[in-house]
Structures are given as structure tokens and as C-alpha cells.
Amino acid sequence: MGIKEILSKKTLKEILGGDELRKIRDEFCYSQEYMAKKIGLTQSTYQRLESGKIRISKEHQIKIAEIFNLSIESFRKDNQTEEIFIKNKEIALLQNIISQLENRILELENTLRTIVK
Fold this sequence. Notes:
Layout: E1 6-7, H1 9-16, H2 20-27, H3 32-39, H4 43-50, E2 56-57, H5 58-67, H6 72-75, H7 78-116
Antiparallel strand pairs: 1-2
Helix pairs in contact: 3-4
InterPro entries: Cro/C1-type_HTH, Lambda_DNA-bd_dom_sf
Pfam families: HTH_3 (PF01381)
Protein name: Helix-turn-helix transcriptional regulator
């Protein structure tokens, strides 16, 4: 896994819809202690995570999704998934533009070297 995506309390609440994580956990009849052990946290840390008091890493989000047999996308609201897709397309487009500009700079540098000689 590359750079870990850290999710803020606000983002966690947007993704999990407030105390949605607790509701899902209750549906499975899992205790906070059980969940904490499954994802490698202490019970008190898991409780703070569930209440949104601490940030949740992408790694823990993936583990939680696996425990509940859900896709990570199911945690996100539809518009958030769409926004992520659009942002990824924008990033790819901007990277392409940057690459083209870098190539153009190299061409101009070579032209200048030829003129200066």
C-alpha cells in the first residue's frame, strides 16, 4: 500500500453516515472488543474510532469492510463515489497536460541551445 489515506472525523461521518459503523456492528452482534481485535486496535481506540473522535486509516477502513463483507464503495454515498471518479479523471488530464508542457519545455531548451551555439 502506498501513501495511506487518512480520513478525518468529518469524512468518516460522511462515509459512514454518523454512527452507521455502530449500527452495522450491532446488526452483526459484534462487540467493540471483537472488532478492535479483528482490525488490530485496542477496544478503547476502536470506540474512539467508531465515535469519530480519531481518524481512521484506509487500511482499517478496508479491514472493517472485509469483516462486514462489504465493498468500500458501499460505505460511500453515491455522489462521493462519482466525485472521486471525476477527480481521478481530472488528475489524469492534468498529469497529461503537465507531461506535454514538460516535453515542450525540453523542445524549447534544445532550440535555444541550437541558436546559442
